[in-house]
Design goal:
Layout: H1 8-20, H2 23-29, H3 34-48, E1 53-55, E2 62-64, H4 66-87, E3 98-103, H5 106-123, E4 127-132, H6 139-145, E5 150-154, E6 163-170, E7 172-176, H7 186-191, E8 193-197, H8 206-213, E9 219-224, H9 227-235, E10 241-244, H10 245-249, E11 256-259, E12 267-273, H11 281-294
Parallel strand pairs: 3-4, 3-5, 8-9
Antiparallel strand pairs: 1-2, 5-12, 6-12, 7-10, 7-11
Helix pairs in contact: 1-2, 1-3, 1-4, 2-3, 5-11
Pfam families: HTH_1, LysR_substrate
GO molecular function: DNA binding; DNA-binding transcription factor activity
InterPro entries: LysR-type_TF, LysR_HTH_N, LysR_subst-bd, WH-like_DNA-bd_sf, WH_DNA-bd_sf, YidZ_PBP2
Length: 300
């Protein structure tokens, strides 16, 4: 093998191919067409004199050849070293162009992402923000691969392997139609139909656990995927929803908001990132900008 023929773009493609073990998924991660990815794989096979990836016997994805297995670890380490060397250069948000991927649901978006995005739009015209729904089970691996830069949301959902910083504390309130005249007490709360936020469609949550300890029960009549959907639903019906205070303050339409008629612990919002990004200048700027926005522009 002649290293003079080495192509960094091909090596980056090989790293993703070995990770995904699937041509189409690798192409999607690299924003390439499937045909372009297949062409790169053909060049890699020629260069290494090895098939590298073979069709799986079950017809799903591909399997690595022994040569590819031996390459995977050293190749990832070499590319990471090169990436760290490049990232060591100074970062200037006024002139740099980079896309940050932030995982946050619509509740965290309202409380945390929106003020950050406003600052980025003002101060960093070349920076783009990609906001996606969090996949909690796969968050740490996706951050390790570089697919996600920052998680914003409930601190209890942060994996132990990630770095995190607590941002603010919030509590829950009862939201309902703005002209609902009934005073909010336990009887009203448990008699009304409830809208529950559950992307997985589950009909119980920590609210129901807290009620059970008080020998009380509510009726969850509907589950929705987002906090915004829940707020919209209760705004035009007799249903109620238990929603975070910070989210409710951000809404652009009126709701009647009352304290819960029972005690429930407050919860913390956090930001989390992979330890490998701890000293990356661009990533550090993003975290500091978020903190500055939360603390009225002061350094935190």
């Amino acid at each position: 093998m002649d290293m003079k023929r080495a192509d960094i773009g091909l090596l980056l493609s090989l790293d993703v191919l070995l990770d995904e073990r699937h041509v189409s998924r690798a192409a999607n991660r690299l924003n390439l067409s499937q045909s372009a990815m297949s062409s790169q794989l053909a060049r890699l096979r020629e260069w290494f004199g090895d098939p590298l990836l073979m069709p799986s016997g079950n017809g799903r994805g591909m399997v690595l050849t022994p040569r590819a297995e031996a390459l995977q670890g050293p190749l990832r380490a070499a590319l990471q070293t090169l990436n760290d060397a490049i990232a060591a250069n100074a970062f200037d948000p006024r002139h740099d162009a980079r896309t940050f991927t932030i995982a946050a649901n619509d509740n965290a978006f309202s409380a945390l992402v929106r003020p950050l995005a406003q600052a980025v739009l003002r101060e960093a015209p070349g920076i783009r923000l990609r906001c996606i729904a969090p996949d909690y089970a796969d968050m740490a691996p996706r951050m390790e691969r570089g697919d996600v830069d920052l998680y914003l949301g409930a601190a209890r959902m942060v994996a132990p392997s990630l770095k995190q910083r607590l941002l603010l504390r919030d509590d829950f309130r009862v939201a309902r139609r703005h002209d609902d005249p009934a005073p909010m007490d336990m009887a009203v709360y448990t008699s009304r139909p409830h809208v529950l936020i559950s992307p997985a469609g589950q009909f119980s949550s920590i609210i129901d656990d807290a009620l059970a300890k008080l020998q009380q029960k509510r009726r969850v009549a509907m589950t929705v995927a987002t906090y915004t959907q829940a707020a919209s639903m209760v705004a035009s019906s007799d249903a109620v929803a238990t929603l975070p205070s910070a989210f409710l303050r951000s809404l652009g339409f009126p709701l009647r908001i009352d304290p819960l008629p029972f005690a429930l612990d407050a919860f913390d919002y956090a930001m989390a990132w992979h330890p490998r990004m701890q000293d990356d200048p661009a990533h550090r700027w993003l975290r500091e900008r978020l903190l500055a926005g939360l603390h009225d522009g002061s350094d935190a």
